[in-house]
Each structure stands twice: as C-alpha cells, then as structure tokens.
Write a structure and sequence with these properties.
Elements lengths: L2 H10 L5 E6 L5 H16 L3 E6 L17 E2 L4 H10 L2 E5 L11 H4 L6 E5 L10 E4 L6 H11 L8 H14 L10 H12 L4 H9 L4 H12 L2 E3 L4 E6 L1 H6 L22 E8 L4 E8 L5 H8 L3 E2 L3 E6 L3 H12 L3 H4 L2
Parallel strand pairs: 1-2, 1-4, 2-3, 4-5, 5-6, 8-9
Antiparallel strand pairs: 7-8, 9-10, 10-12, 11-12
Helix pairs in contact: 2-5, 2-6, 5-6, 6-7, 6-8
GO molecular function, one term: nucleic acid binding
Pfam families: DHH (PF01368), DHHA1 (PF02272)
InterPro entries: DDH_dom, DHH_sf, DHHA1_dom, Oligoribo/pAp-PDE_c-di-AMP_PDE
Length: 338
C-alpha cells in the first residue's frame, strides 16, 4: 500500500465510522479470513464494523473468530442491505468487479459512502474511492496485514486478527506451495504466529475435518479424471447426480482441482462441476509455470482470476462444455508444452 493510499484511508478512519465489509460470492478461506481480520482490527480502533457475505460458506471455516457475527445476505437480505446502505465506509475484499459479489451487487450499486477495495486479482474495475490492488500478493489476507502495517498499527494485531489472517494466507497459498508465496509471506506468517495464530490447530481445522461423504466424492472425482498427455492437461467432471449421491455440502470440492497438477508433466488442471439450480457448469482452472489460466478463463469461459488460478462458467451441458474445452487446447499446445 503506497503512502498516498495510506494517508487517504487514515483520513477516512480518523473518526469513528459505521463500516460494512463485503467479500465475494461463495467466500473461501481468504475471503472470510481477510474480512474478519479487517473487521477485528477496525473494531479495535473504535469503529462499528460488520462483515456481510453474499451467501453461506463452508463449515470448515466456521471456527474462525467472528464468524458467528457474520450477516449472510441470502438469508437476511433486509438487515444485510440495511448495514450496507447505512455504512459510512464500505470495504470490498478479495474481488475487484462488483459482479463477483452476487446478489449483494444491487446493494453495493446504491452505496453513496466511500468504497475501499483490497484485492489481489487481475484487471481491477474502477468502482472504489480507494483501490489497493496488488496482483503479486499471495492473498488478500496478506494485503490486510500490509494495510494494518501501513496505518502504523502492526503492534496492535491480536490473536483473533492473527488467526483470521493466517487462515486466509494458508488457504490461498495452497499451504504455502503456490508461486505467489514469497519470503515476505513467510515473514508475515511468522509475525502472525508470534502474535497468537495457532498454526497447527488452524491447519487441522481446515484440512483434517473430512466426512466420509467428502472422501467418497473425491474418489468419484478422481475416477472421472481424464488425462490428455498431448496437452499436458488433466480435467475432472462432477455431475449434479454425482454430487447428490455423495450428499454434497458447500466446500466439499475445495482443492479437488489441484490433484491434476500432482501428476508428472501435467501443467494445466481443470474441474467442471454441474450446478443444476443455477443452470451452469462451474469451472476451476489451475496451472503451473507461465501458462495463464486467467487469460484462458477470460477468453473462453466468462471468468478470470490469477495467472495460475482462475474460475469460469459455462451455460452448455457438461458434455458440450468439456468437448469445447478439449477443442480449444490445440491452439494452446505450444504454450502447454513449455
């Protein structure tokens, strides 16, 4: 965060404010961890802060300090919108296009208060009064740490803030294995542990709470994996019937897409998940090296994200979607062979 941005935020927060914090639809560990970490910090500074999420989030994140105070827009739209519209400052976290906020977008469009964006995805839209965007960052949670530090308050980070931010960084870095993890990330994490983040317990709560249904679903996903060695690519499909048969719950497919990249010579991994209620195939893309799944998702599947991690969607059937995907690979063959 640069000096001008820090000074602008300090001026905004120089007196007590009513603050709404909104992450993206289908919030993940980084969205929840960064939002709650920021919320705890702002409350410590004397502000009235509240997190509003567009829809529910996975059970394995519901231990994070402050989750019981989150307002879920899809369950309580009236109160959630009231908090947003009465806010004197609004923070949007872990997204940079209002469409990523789902149903909350219509409330955010009505906001007259200043909006502060904190995000690390590519191609930010110009909707915020203050935009703190850095695509080199490992996570929005690491950016919230930088935000607090830029405001001169690193020393007041307590255990609640530390646990929230650690959880966000842990999940968005793939347990610190993704290329976006830097030496700075590790120094931030070390400081968070010193300030009370229970690193081992956080890891257990996020990754070691599987149900038999989730493991059976993982088995189904791996059984469905298609490997295309000529394109160094692997993809997984999961139909709505397969999700239903394994009693799918929100968050159960988290991380499944990464299994393709554990195969030798595979550089591009994809998972296609049917959502019958929304009438779409939800797609997650992952890559290794310089192949940009952000560009691929933007060009072909109404999506985007990071160079090595992105999302998208298709309104075609599963068979039509995967056929289209495979047909596209030939034009990327040289890039995928590198």
């Amino acid at each position: 965060m640069n000096l001008t941005q820090a000074q602008s935020v300090q001026q905004l927060l120089s007196r007590p404010q009513k603050i709404a914090i909104v992450p993206h639809k289908n919030p993940d560990g980084d969205a929840i961890g960064s939002s709650l970490g920021l919320c705890h910090y702002l409350q410590l500074k004397g502000h009235e802060a509240r997190v509003i999420v567009p829809n529910d989030f996975p059970k394995f994140l519901k231990w994070i300090p402050g989750t019981q105070e989150i307002l879920i827009y899809e369950w309580d739209q009236s109160n959630a919108e009231k908090v947003i519209l009465e806010a004197t400052v609004v923070f949007t976290l872990d997204f940079n296009d209002l469409s990523r906020s789902g149903a909350v977008e219509k409330s955010l469009q009505k906001v007259s208060a200043p909006i502060v964006m904190i995000d690390h995805h590519q191609a930010p839209h110009d909707y915020a009064s203050i935009t703190y965007s850095d695509v080199s960052m490992s996570s929005t949670a690491e950016m919230v740490y930088n935000f607090i530090e830029a405001l001169g308050d690193r020393e007041i980070i307590n255990a609640d803030i530390a646990n929230c931010l650690y959880a966000g960084i842990l999940t968005d870095t793939g347990s610190f294995k993704f290329a976006s993890t830097t030496s700075r990330t590790h120094r931030v994490v070390a400081d968070l542990i010193d300030k009370g983040a229970s690193n081992s317990e956080i890891h257990n709560r996020i990754f070691d709470t599987n149900t038999p249904d989730r493991l059976h679903l993982l088995g189904c996903a791996l059984n469905n994996m298609v490997i295309l060695p000529e394109y160094n690519t692997a993809y997984i499909t999961l139909s709505q019937d397969e999700l239903d048969a394994n009693h799918f719950r929100k968050g159960d497919t988290e991380g499944f897409v990464n299994y393709g990249l554990t195969l030798e010579n595979i550089r591009f991994a994809v998972i296609f998940i049917e959502n019958r209620d929304e009438g779409i195939i939800k797609i997650s893309f992952r890559s290794e090296g310089e192949f940009s799944v952000n560009e691929f998702a933007r060009a072909h599947f109404q999506g985007g994200g990071h160079t090595n991690a992105a999302g998208g969607k298709s309104e075609l059937s599963m068979e039509e979607t995967t056929s289209r995907f495979v047909a596209l690979l030939d034009q990327y063959k040289s890039e995928l062979a590198k």
